[in-house]
UniProtKB/TrEMBL annotation:
Protein's name in the database: Peroxiredoxin
GO cellular component: cytosol; mitochondrion
Matches recorded under Pfam families: 1-cysPrx_C, AhpC-TSA
EC number per UniProt: 1.11.1.24
Family: Belongs to the peroxiredoxin family.
Organism: Corymbia citriodora subsp. variegata
Organism ancestry: Eukaryota, Viridiplantae, Streptophyta, Embryophyta, Tracheophyta
PROSITE patterns: THIOREDOXIN_2
Length: 197
């Protein structure tokens, strides 16, 4: 599949968001970032996922940034955010949402659904990239527009990636925070004895 792959640096795109204009690398800074796309502001599944992201954002201590992306205009995103906050008690959409009405950014970030909408335009898939502080793709999920994501899995994977980066460990199948981990295969026996006495 063409487009961004694991280990690739995300392009430093100029983006227009609900929080203003910025460059993607400036937004990421030195943080871990979850960049996720959705078919449109008014999709009910996205509404539900956003509420989950809100809760995820509140309880995460190591994630600094969430960044949404849709092919609607900024004003459409802002109207949708008002609806979410008005009709969901306690809801506050804290993260920016990128506007991509010309479908250029979804192509650059490899977030395109193979199907087209009723007008023949490409739509974003339910894609998600976890981007490290080095601006490189650490993980990608790519779901069809018809299937919502599991944000609890995103939390689990992010925790695993951050631990692996910091401690040179690997997490086994079905691992959850608090469970045993293994030493990364990239660590020699000598290094392991020094790192994990």
């Amino acid at each position: 599949m063409p487009g961004l792959m694991l280990g690739d640096t995300v392009p430093n795109l100029a983006i227009e968001t609900t929080h203003g204009k910025m460059k993607l690398h400036d937004f990421i800074g030195d943080s871990w970032t979850i960049l996720f796309s959705h078919p449109g502001s008014l999709y009910s599944q996205y509404y539900l996922r956003t509420c989950m992201c809100r809760g995820f954002h509140a309880r995460s201590t190591t994630l600094k940034m969430l960044l949404g992306l849709s092919c609607d205009e900024v004003e459409s995103h802002k109207a949708w955010i008002k609806d979410v906050e008005a009709f969901t008690p306690g809801a506050k959409v804290m993260y920016p949402v990128i506007a991509d009405p010309n479908r250029e950014i979804i192509k650059e970030l490899n977030m395109v659904e193979p199907e087209e909408d009723a007008s023949g335009k490409q739509v974003p898939s339910r894609a998600l990239h976890i981007v490290g502080p080095d601006k490189k793709i650490k993980l990608s999920f790519l779901y069809p527009a018809s299937t919502g994501r599991n944000m609890e899995e995103v939390v689990r994977v992010l925790d695993s990636l951050q631990r692996a980066t910091k401690h040179k460990i690997a997490t086994p199948c079905n691992w959850k925070p608090g469970e045993p981990v293994v030493i990364s295969p990239s660590v020699s026996s000598k290094q392991a004895k020094e790192m994990f006495p």
